[in-house]
Every structure is written in C-alpha cells, then in structure tokens.
Amino acid sequence: MGRRAWAHGFPARIDGRGPSRREMDDARCPAPAQGFCSLSGLGTLLPDSRLVLNDYAITLLAQEARVIVRDREWMGWGAGAVFSAVVLLVTVFALNGPPARALPPAAPDIVAIDSGSLHGVSAQHYRLFNGIPYAAPPVGALRWRPPAPVSPWTGIREARDAGPKCAQATGAGGLRSTDEDCLYLNVWTPRTLPADGRGLPVMVWIHGGSLQTGTGSMYGAAPLVSQPDGDSIVVTINYRLGTFGFLAASALDEGAGSGDYGLMDQQAALRWVQRNIAAFGGDPDRVTVDGESAGGISICAQMAAPSSAGLFAAAMMQSGPCAGQALPEAEAEGDAWASGAGCAGADAAACLRGLSADVLVDHAPDSANVVYGNDFLPRDPVAVLKAGGMAHVPTFIGSNHDEMALWVWIKYGNPLGAGMTAADYPNLLTTQLSGVDQAQVDRIVGEYPLGDYAQPALALTRAWTDKVVCNLVDQAGQFGRQNPTYIYEFDDRGALAPPSNFPMGAYHAAELPSLFDLAQVGWLLHGAMTPDQQRLQDEMRRYWTRFITAGSADPQGLPAIPRYSESAPAFLSFRPAGNQFSEAFAADHRCEFWSSLAR
Fold first, then answer.
1. First vs last Cα of the chain: how many Å apart?
2. Which pLDDT value is given to residue 172?
3. Is-contact 188 174, C-beta < 8 A?
4. What pairing do the DSSP bridges indicate for beta strands 282-292 and 233-237?
5. Is residue 17 exposed (0-12), middle (13-18) or buried (19+ Cβ within 10 Å)?
6. H/E element holding 462?
7. Catalytic residues
8. Which of 41, 46, 295, 500 is 20 to 30 A from 253 via CA?
9. In this structure, are residues 412 and 503 in contact, taking their beta carbons and an 8 Å threshold?
10. Percentage of the chain modeled with pLDDT above 90
11. Alpha helix stretches (DSSP H) within 118-258
C-alpha cells in the first residue's frame, strides 16, 4: 500500500473528478518520505502568509515544472491546472528570491501502513502514534493461540490515545484490567526526519512486570528520540500477560506445545516493525530490542527462538537474565490450576476459553514463566547461551547495585525490618533463593552474617542481590564469547524511590526514570533529581542512544565502555558523582563465593 499525503500546496483537478482533498499516493507525490506533500513540508510559513522554501523543495518544484511543461498534464490535470502550477512556481520564486539553505522538513502526522492510514500527534520535538493494533484481538477462539493478523481499516485511524493495557491485576502499571483486546503498540519519532530520506535506527521496548503486569504506554520515549548522538525511533508494545500470555496446559497443546503466547505477541510486534517502520522514517535493518526485568528475560528468549532470527540487529537486557521452565513441568502446573478452575477432561480447552477475564485475573497462578520445549522456544535459553547459539548481535547487559531491595521492602521491610526477624533469616534464604539446600543456607549465613547489617532485611537484600547479579555476570561472560558485549551497573544509591524508610539504594527498576518519562507512575517516586542525577540521566540516555544507533557504547565526549570478556571483565558503573570503570564487578558481589556454592 502506498503512503498517502495531502497535497495542499498543489492545485485541485478542475474537471470535478479529482478527490476533494487532493489526495496523492507515493507515485505522484514528489517526495513522500520527506513530507513534501504538504505546504508545511515545503518550508516555513511566515505570519504574513509568505512561504520560505528550502533548497530541496525548490528543486522539486523546478523538476515538476519541467515535467508539466513537457507532458502538458500531471496527475490528470488539464491545461488550466498546468497554468496554475506554473504560476505557483513562479510566484514562490519571486517571493523567496534565491534558494535558502535546506532545513529538515517536519514529518507528516499522517502515515500509511499495511493495515491502513494513521493520524498521530505532533509536539515540539517529537511525533507520537498511539494505540496501533499489530494483531487481531486475542479473544474467544483466539485466546491462548498465536497472534492472528490484524484486520485492515478504511479511512484514517486516529492514533492519539494508547490502546487498552492487557488484562492484569493491580500493579505498578496502574489499576486492574480485564481487557483482552490489548495487542497495540506506540511509535515515537523525532519531529523532523533526515532531509536525505535515510531511515533512523529503531528501539523496540519490551516492558517488565514479572510477565504479569505493565503496559508499553507507561514509558514516555520522547527523551530518547532526539539525542546528541543521533535521532532514533522508539516503539513500545503491549503483550499478553499472566494467565493469558503464559499459561501452559496440556489441553492447549494442539501439537505445538503450549505457553509463551506473550512471547509470540512480542515477535508479532517485531514483524510489524519490519513491515511498517519505514513509513515512520525508521530503518528495519537497524532495530534494537531492549527490555527491563521480564522484558530482559523475554529478549533472551527471543534471541534463542529460531523464528525470531533476523528481526533485530542488536539487543539490550536490563536486570533480566536468561531463564525458563521446561514444558512438562509448566504443563503439569497449568493442568493442576485448570482443574482447580473446573476445567479438566476432554473439553478442558473449551472450558478454559469460556472462563471470564475476571476469573482469570482474580484467580491467576502466583507466577508466570517463559516456557521452553514447545515449537516457539524448542530449547532452554540458558542452554542455548552456553552452547553459543544465541542471535549473533551486539549485546548490552546490565543490572542494579541493590536489585532485590525492592522485593525485600515489599515483602518484609516496610517499615524497616518489621516483617522479618533474625529467626526468619535462614528460612527466607531457603524460600527466596531458588535452588539452595540447608547446607548451602548455612554457608550463606556465614558469608552474610546478621551482625554485619543493621536489620535482617538488609542481610537478605545483600545475599539475594549478589546471587542474582552473579548469575548475570556468568551469563555476560557467555554472551561475550559469541557477541560484542558491553556491561553496566546502575549504582545511584539515592535514586528516586517510593516513599519508605527502607534504604532502597539502587533497587530493581531504579534506572528507568533515567531513560524514560514515567509520568504515569510518577506518584510512586518520591523527591526530585539532583543536578548530579540529572547529569547522570543525560549521560545514560546518550549511552543508550549510541548503542541503538551504532551497536557500540562509545558516545562522543564520554568514556567508551570496552567489550566485556571473561579475561577482561570491565564494566561501567553509572553513578551521580561520576561514572567509574572497574573490573571488580564480580568481587563486589562475591561471585566467587556463589560459584563455589554451586559446585
């Protein structure tokens, strides 16, 4: 489908047969990608109604004048229209005099994609196209099935409001939702696009939330699309969550395995980007996927999924390691849950699809997991990584210095230490640190003795954080063997945080306000950034933008993060007082101890 634009700057057909709004398609628009099919795209309209043209627009008009004179007719216009066009050309030259220096044109607010036309919103520095459907609503018979193609629409669809968030319980993303019609994405672009028509690099953001909560529209990407190290386009997506997105059950198998419907949604969004991002000024060959927490876990799964090969050229994972659950175990748990919901036997699938969204939200399992062993994800992502079989793309990986402080505060630390006693410490190590036995717990208590911490909750925070971070360090080394890999740690211990008397430090997700506008969840964060934090925010955005544009971590004027390897394990610590390079990342988190514990 060709891109469509409104040619307000050109005469209408005078025979009465032309479109009343002078609609043109790609073949008839002088430069659709640059927005030159609108008056504003030709230059700057002054208050006295004079139009200041740029060089490129004048050149285009001159070229079209030659076409008109030669062919005597353009776009089906008769001789009178030809005369009008020539008069327009002569007039604008007379008003403007010699050509002025070319300026990047404002990007059009109307774009055409493979399913129809969209009308977005423009601000001073960016455009936003909200609530774009990338797959059919996964309702009724499509519940717990791979995403189906979206139905095209006629006319121009308003893309001003975000689509509904996917069904979920109340969480950081806002209030509870039971909406299953949620497969929408949002596209952020700079207000102006390159005058030479080259496509901009693209980042696709996969939100976190334990695969159970969140929405793409939470993340305002305006700060990322225009940066000193280059402009870019950001796409934020919704995907099915919780029971709707990750339930594995034998009744849903249908010969391809079950689970991972949310991952299939993510892949469908990436395929949408490949087909359509050029219409927004993006380059489909320069797509970076980025995600935090569950979003990072999802990206590792996409890097391991054979059918996602070629859909992105670089990957970023923030506080989200490779992880997964084997299909037999996941289906056994799902079958037990389905039976408890009254759905068992030969008609279990129909029964499950007949359950209301309210029931599925209110009685969802406690957790959601990436599942491997099905057609979408045949192998364990951890095993694929160890075997060197991940997508071979530049990789940017990081974590936060006090990752698990958020979870300890939520469960046991508000007010400080009130939900946890010294006697609870060994038991909580057993329940919260997966895969440790009693002998290992005794060793952990010896390595992180309560006497070293003001409260038991702080000892649990440190031990739990170090175990999680050291797993990421190990995986970073494996990525470094096969991909150009760069490592960071966010270490702002005074990061904006929910009101609390618990020392959160650089907790899980604390880096997100340094990258995005989080106005939707601003009420969760207490205080305002200091000048040093604002400087850090600016620098982090530049590192992210540089990786998106070049696949490297070397923004101009800032220290380059070297490639990470097990023999040269350098990383950059993002700190308000000044970023620091170090090779002591593993030592800071006692990774040798955790490695010995696993042996």
1. 59
2. 58
3. no
4. unpaired
5. exposed
6. helix 456-482
7. 293, 403, 508
8. 295
9. no
10. 71
11. 222-225, 242-246
- Its sign, for the CA torsion 190, 196, 197, 203, is negative
Give residue for tokens 């609609």. 23
Cβ within 8 Å of residue 402, ≥6 positions away = 461, 465, 493, 504, 505, 506, 507
Looking up tokens 């205080």 gives 527
Average of pLDDT values for 250-277? 97
The label of the residue with tokens 């070319």 reads 102
Tell me the H-state helices in 193-326.
222-225, 242-246, 261-276, 294-304
CATH number of 111-393: 3.40.50.1820
Separation of CA 421 from chain center: 39
3-state DSSP call for residue 184?
strand
Residue 92 confidence class, pLDDT cut points 50, 70, 90? very low
Report the SS3 class of residue 574: strand
Radius of gyration of the chain (CA): 27
Asked if 488 and 574 touch (Cβ cutoff 8 Å), the reply is yes
Instruction: Extract the tokens encoding 259.
Output: 């689970």
- Model confidence over 551-570: pLDDT tens digits? 999 999 999 999 998 888 88
Gap between the Cα atoms of 405 and 425, Å rounded? 15
Q: Which residues of 100-126 are buried (b: 16+ CB within 10 A; e: fewer)?
A: eebbbbbbbbbbbbebbbbebeeeeeb
In angstroms, the CA 204 to CA 159 distance is: 18
Instruction: Parse the chain into domains and list their residue ranges.
Output: 4-96, 111-393, 400-507+526-598
The answer for residues whose C-beta is within 8 angstroms of residue 89's C-beta and 6 or more apart is: 61, 62, 64, 65
Average pLDDT of the residues in 578-582:
92
Q: What is the average pLDDT score of the chain? A: 85
Give residue-wise pLDDT tens across range 382-440: 999 999 999 999 999 999 999 999 999 988 866 655 678 999 999 999 999 988 999 99
132: helix, strand or coil: strand
Tokens found for residue 599: 């042996």
What's the predicted TM-score (pTM) here? 0.82
Residue 560 DSSP SS3: coil
Tracing tokens 């620098």 back to the chain, one arrives at 539
Q: With contact defined as beta carbons under 8 Å apart, do 34 and 197 qualify?
A: yes
* Per-residue confidence band for 174, with pLDDT thresholds at 50, 70 and 90: low
